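In this supplementary section we document a worked example of the pipeline. Step one takes a protein sequence of length 522 as its only input; no multiple sequence alignment statistics are reported here. Step two produces a three-dimensional model, which step three serialises into structure tokens for compact storage. The input and output of this example are shown verbatim.
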Amino acid sequence: MVLENKVPYGKNAEVLIANKHLGKVTLRDPVILSRLFKRITNKTLKNLSPDKRLVITRPFRPGSEAHARNIVDRILALDEAGVNAVLKQTLRDFAHRHKDIHSILTKNFLEISGYIKDPSALSKERKLLLGACFTMEYSIESAALFNPSIVIYPKQNNLKKGQTRVVFSFRATGEGHISSIVFRSAIIDKDNSIFMEPASQFLGTPEIVLNTTYDRELFKAKLEEMGQLSEVANTICQQVKSRFTLEEIVQVIAAIRNSSSFAVSDLDATAVHIKWLAESNYEVFFPHGQLISERVIFPLSQNESNGVEDARFVRFMDEDGGTTYYATYTAYNGRDILPQLIETKDFHHFKISTLNGPMARNKGMALFPRKINGQYAMITRSDGESLYLSYSNNIHFWSSGIKIEAPERPWELVQIGNCGSPLETKKGWLMLTHGVGPMRKYCIGVVLLDLINPSKIIGKLEEPLLMPREEDREGYVPNVVYSCGSIILNGELIIPYAISDSESHVASISVDELLEKLLKPH
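The serialised model returned by step three reads:
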């Protein structure tokens, strides 16, 4: 996307892009929202556009057990020559599309081996063919690559002086509107030229960490918020340790079932909610040899079966001087949404957990990059239309908040939200917002919050910072510009943003000039 030229600030500015394939060039006919904008990416920057060739594998499950058994029987009926011929062609067609297809097919064979009387007696080739018939590919970016965020990457190795490595996260959407989180890395020079690092042709989903443990008190508090802390649930929680695994709580449920303390129907209903909650809190791990562009966080739990949406990553400075990366996102099961939290130190090991409390009941929560007055701070939109500031001593629970901004300008009459975590400057917290106006047109705005008391707005632009230009309004969802997180680097605000929920670009602005505009008396 380029930017709307009907603007309050006037003149066009030079627009530069850079990537490893195109080199550093000047865009033709740049059209800029204001003279503050200095750099955006070219529409042909392939690394920020959907790539339909990128696929992951998913287990294929027929609609009935009878169908699955029929597939197995047909493969068992083949002679070895037939098995070898079909497998050879399958590997010829698909092996080059995945790093280790043999491991993938073996894993999926093991998942259906219960249909076979003596699976150990089968040849290696027949096992692989069985695995292949219960495997499918999924193109995660076939529909769109959008709603990006950007953070400083924890690995800053092999860089020249003045360079910084960053990681972009994107919402990738494929068949069935199923969303996942994907990543791309880039190097930014001291003049803020952006060089996208080559993306791998392979993708991989993580391994689930076994024996994920749960905090009993947090678990009980979430059950209570869900309205499911019944006498049965309370009894179950009392009988598990202060930290427990899913296997351990299942064993407690089985013991209570055998004791006949409660009606079977009540126990079964409670077990469903406990399993749902436990599966919404999990850990995953990507091998250390896997490139950042190969890692895909694909929906794993039932509550996110239709999408892992709009991750807002932030580099959080811990009180001990360490760094933790958090991201809020929206889990979607096709009917309901659930705010979730991602936590990682290295982008290999990710902890996923539920966000809880009255202020965590809608989309678009964004965590401040450090504690304020000893507490976590979050921008929320609990009522679905206005922005609130919430504080908490526990990052997983958000009980109360104060409204700091409501829709009031013409381009945000429907609702407002945030475009990622607030960014700290010497004059205040810069917060990008999105406003939804007539015909659900999305624009990006900006406000400045007080450093000490972020509930106080001390500056704002009355016009949008970014808006859809006429020729860039068409896409998966038309008339939308949207971002999930920016950074400040080398004196500039760097904003990755998506257009029409289809593809993504980057713009940068001088922070000092932007602050001057925000604080200028109207």
